[in-house]
Design goal:
globular
Length: 215
Amino acid sequence: EHGTELVELDEILGYHLEQACRYRAELGMPDGQILASAARSHLNAAGHRAQLRADYRAAVSLYERAAALVPATEIDLALEAELGEALYWAGNGVESQRRAVSLAERASAAGDRVGELCGRVRESLLRTFLEPEGATEELAALIEEALPVFRAAGDDTALYIGYSALGQVGNMRGQMDAGLEAFEQAAIHARQAGMRHEELGWRSTLRFMGTTPGA
């Protein structure tokens, strides 16, 4: 009667659907893609909520379980971005960087230029934190190459990744207003891609550090 009111509903449904997928595999039954897609959707939604409450370790676990249900021939760009973000904020920047490299390689092998550039941008962005010497200029050059491709594709997830990386370039250069403008664009594309939890980001920090009036 009150099941739909449970805060943990997505975690519970995602878990049971995930187990059903595993049982089908163990029994040698045909792939249940509809079942796997539903499990992935619920685990992803649960990961969003964990990320919003800054429980990044839980978000990583949920996103990794969702990623394990993605077909080998498919790239879920939004899930890759969200898992990469959660890994970084959970304190595992090296693994986040490794996944970004893997994304670029898998997308390149599949002929997916947008996915490849997203992986390269993510990996380059992480280097501004992990190996910063010269990384900001390399990232800026890569974004200049990538954004026209993302715009031509009309891919909101890719545009979120591109503009949020551009915002970080502004931040690293001390160009707070330019960084804020880029993060505002990133928030628009996050919303359009259904990644509303990604709208929070760096905008308040750059408003505070830039020329935005206090009142």
